[in-house]
Design brief:
Elements: H1 2-11, H2 40-53, E1 62-68, E2 74-80, E3 83-85, E4 88-94, H3 98-105, E5 108-115, E6 120-130, H4 133-142, H5 145-153, H6 163-177, E7 190-204, E8 212-218, E9 231-232, E10 237-242
Antiparallel strand pairs: 1-2, 1-5, 3-4, 4-7, 5-6, 6-7, 7-8, 8-10, 9-10
Helix pairs in contact: 5-6
Length: 244
Amino acid sequence: MRALVKFLLSAMGINLGGLRIKYKSKDETFLEKDLVSKEPFGQFDAWFKEAVSKKEILEPNVMCLATATRNGCPSARYMLCKEYGKEGFKFFTNYGSSKAQDMEENPYVAATFYWVVLNRSVRIEGYVEKLSEEESTKYFQERPIPNQISAASSCQSTPIESRDVLRERESILEKEYLVPGKKVPKPYFWGGYIIRPTSVEFWQGQTNRLHDRIRFRRLHEGEVADGKLLHQGEDGWVYERLSP
């Protein structure tokens, strides 16, 4: 009977418990003294530039963006972060997409960067705001023309009969705009957002699973940085080490 139960359980799925990934020759710890900045954006900049320097990381600006409806139903997808700085993290999308509808109902989001080669992750929590029409238009005009045409061709997240429908729309726009000196106008349904973080966590993985986690966040009402569990940072940020 025990053998039968074991067989039935194994038949239900693939056991990944023994899967192990070798990240690098040895673990790299991430201690408080290793912080290059006492606020999250400077620290992110240091880690991001290191990710960019690794030729194995093809798109270091890929992030997983998680949104939720007003009722709390979550969804996640991969996006390209197009700019970051002390204001926040910017990305662009179709305003009619499911993610945009979520953000219209519920502006609170989370985003995660993961660079497997470095065994590092950055987790961001905060809220989104739409970028101005001027900024969205400026970025749209900087995109390659085929990308502009693709954005204008798609009613993102809506059902479609076949890929041929997309190709037909694309072909019509190519005939109109693949002409020297002619610009593709930014679609009214396309533009940018900025994530304004309330929390940014830097995660350095360890092969023994005693990972290093340092989180920057804003002080809660009545809270004081004691210099032991909670440390005073810069620009209104505090930081703390989290258990793995």
